[in-house]
Amino acid sequence: MAKKREFNKSEAVRNYLKEHPGIANKDVAEALSKQGIKMHPDYVATVKSKMKGTKGKRKRRQQAAEVVAVKTGIGVTDIKAAFMLLKHCGGLAQAKEALAAAAEIQKVM
Length: 109
Known about the structure:
Layout: H1 9-19, H2 25-34, H3 41-52, H4 57-72, H5 76-89, H6 92-108
Helix pairs in contact: 1-3, 2-3, 5-6
């Protein structure tokens, strides 16, 4: 039967990092090993990276839209509307066809 752990290694790493921010992975692993929690510096690096979290797709898209808006002068709301058109039409080719049809209708009016 496997031994039941009384502690959570990840939680131990997170707590140690909160108390000692900016410390190297090797130093964290050594300090926790002295406390009886054996681990490798690579494990500490994994826990650190998961603590940082990841940027979501929506956040990346918003940042990209802001950069394009500054470069081209097109507003963020216009870029969002373009994304909505692409999503609604199902792709770039269909959106181009819809815009061409709209241009033809506008010529008639």
